[in-house]
Specification:
Helix content is about 15%, strand content about 40%. The strands form 4 sheets. Strands 6-2-3-4-17-16-15-10 form an 8-stranded antiparallel β-sheet. An 8-stranded antiparallel β-sheet has the order 14-11-12-13-25-24-23-18. Strand 19 and strand 20 form a beta hairpin. The chain is of the alpha+beta class. The radius of gyration is 25 Å and the shape is elongated.
Length: about 375
């Protein structure tokens, strides 16, 4: 195999695939990236057995061939080569090494045979649809923060994507907060199974659609999902579990409406939480008439208060929240005004963006 390729193209393509590879692997082949050169094209594939990413770029190929090399080392070599350089990659079938040349730099890497590399065969996909990258990016951006990291409740370790009537809905929750975002159901998604996309897969898709441009093709079954983003194809297993009935925790009868300026509220929470303890992070909201007083008391370091003018016409209320969770939700509000629908100090609060439809957040209170 002999391949000549431009450094910037190779680096960009490698950056799409190498991140899938775990730094520590008990199975040596999983530390490698599969390189296949054929008919003017160089394709690269990496997998961790749950997630597989493939990308391909144009290259001068004569002759073709395939092998596998350590992914992180290969990426670091290409990254450190001079910008604009032409990279020549050569391998021979009889020796288990791959040579990499650029300018005066020479590297040889140990290889493992292509035949050992696992294939995460996608199998039959029951549903397929496409949606704008910007829409998929919004679904992920606005729910990802609420994904649980608690491994015991594995069914919460991802985003629950499902059809809800005429809408495609994404939901994530960690038991303390919940995020729900929806958009019109794309053609072909009707009747799709409810699926839980794992946290690592969500993060990789998010990186691949950073620009939010173009269309994304999505194919899925009850067990796997495939995203096609330009030349990149990502296949992932889905979390095999049942997502809880999240609708039960979304309050429907919260009758106290607090309307705040999003920027002012976010900045005030951030300021007063400076003195909160790392463990508690509690901030107290005292609401009376058109006045909101935010306060934090930390027996070890001190206290802080800040007052805001708000729109509130219900009975006076004192309620506490985790300041970090409040800030995470405030960061998702696109418009200038946030609406907090409250009930009492012990019940979940519904938070909505006054301007952006299709998104809502639920936050459980804390004792303060």
């Amino acid at each position: 195999m002999k391949v000549t390729v431009e450094r910037a193209e190779l680096l960009k393509s490698l950056s799409h695939v190498y991140r899938v590879v775990e730094r520590r692997n008990t199975i040596p082949i999983l530390s490698n990236v599969l390189i296949r050169a054929d008919k003017g094209k160089l394709s690269m594939k990496a997998t961790d057995l749950d997630l597989e990413v493939t990308d391909s770029i144009a290259a001068e190929v004569a002759p073709g061939g395939a092998t596998t090399v350590p992914a992180h080392m290969f990426y670091d070599i290409v990254r450190k080569l001079p910008d604009g350089s032409q990279i020549v990659i050569e391998g021979s079938g009889d020796r288990a090494v791959l040579s990499i040349r650029a300018g005066r730099s020479r590297f040889t890497l140990q290889t493992l045979p292509e035949s050992d590399f696992p294939d995460l065969a996608a199998g039959e996909m029951s549903h397929s649809f496409s949606l704008p990258a910007a829409d998929l990016k919004r679904l992920i951006d606005k729910t990802q923060f609420a994904i649980s990291t608690e491994e015991t409740r594995y069914y919460l370790n991802g985003i629950y994507l499902h059809a809800a009537g005429k809408m495609l809905r994404a939901v994530a929750t960690d038991g303390h907060r919940l995020a729900q975002v929806e958009l019109p159901l794309p053609e072909g998604a009707d009747g799709m199974p409810g699926i839980i996309i794992p946290r690592k897969t969500v993060a990789e898709v998010q990186r691949l659609i950073e620009t939010g441009e173009g269309e994304i093709a999505v194919e899925l079954s009850a067990g796997k999902i495939r995203f096609s983003i330009g030349n990149v194809v990502l296949i992932s297993k889905l979390i095999d579990g049942t997502f809880p009935d999240y609708g039960r925790v979304i309050p429907a009868n919260n009758d106290k409406s607090l309307v705040v300026d999003k920027k002012d509220f976010e900045a005030a929470v951030d300021r007063v939480s400076t003195v909160s303890s790392e463990r508690g992070r509690a901030v107290k909201l005292s609401i009376t008439g058109g006045r909101l007083v935010l306060s934090v008391t930390n027996p070890d370091s001190g206290s802080a208060t800040e007052e805001l003018e708000v729109d509130y016409e219900a009975d006076p209320l004192d309620i506490g929240f985790n300041s970090r969770y409040l800030l995470d939700i405030a960061a998702q509000i696109e418009g200038e005004v946030a609406i907090l629908k409250l009930a009492d100090p012990g019940s979940p609060t519904l938070i909505q963006d006054k301007d952006a439809k299709g998104a809502l957040y639920v936050l459980m209170p804390m004792r303060v």
